[in-house]
Design brief:
By secondary structure, the protein is of the alpha+beta class. Helices cover about 15% and strands about 20% of the residues. It has 3 helices and 5 strands, in the order αβββαββα. It has a 5-stranded mixed beta sheet with strand order 1-2-3-4-5.
């Protein structure tokens, strides 16, 4: 899963579109979260954007179908249509979503441990050319 607070990156579209990472920002709204899935078909990208009128944000769901509106949006060839509520774009069909899912919970970052004391206990190994094969690096 790829997700950042500044932009949305779609791994699924990069190879197919032949471009680098893409981003979508409908109307300058703040990105809240993203969920990618594939269920026996095209990749599906669900996104949530900040919206004052809804507690969980504005929901947009795109199906990655090449040569269609939703596929072109994921490849940054076309813009999202004007958003007047939660929407789902499946190919060239735009549907309103009455009961959008809530955004997934933010994953907690791993706690980093200070391993310097453990590393200091490891022995230092001297390379002995008579015992070890030495390979020269390319310059």
């Amino acid at each position: 899963m790829l997700s950042t607070k500044r932009c949305i990156v779609f791994e699924t579209s990069i190879g197919r579109c032949g471009t680098g990472p893409t981003s979508i920002n409908p109307g300058g709204r703040k990105f809240l979260n993203q969920h990618n899935e594939r269920i026996d078909g095209p990749d599906i990208v669900s996104m949530w954007f900040e919206d004052e009128g809804t507690p969980n944000g504005l929901y947009v769901r795109l199906f990655d179908k090449p040569g269609t509106l939703s596929g072109d949006i994921l490849c940054l060839r076309r813009d999202l249509p004007p958003l007047e509520g939660h929407i789902e774009i499946d190919g060239d069909t735009v549907r309103a979503v009455d009961n959008p899912p809530t955004p997934p919970e933010e994953e907690e970052e791993d706690d980093l441990e200070d391993l310097s004391a453990d590393l200091a206990q490891l022995p230092l190994i001297e390379v002995d050319a008579s015992k070890h094969f030495l390979k020269r690096g390319k310059s």
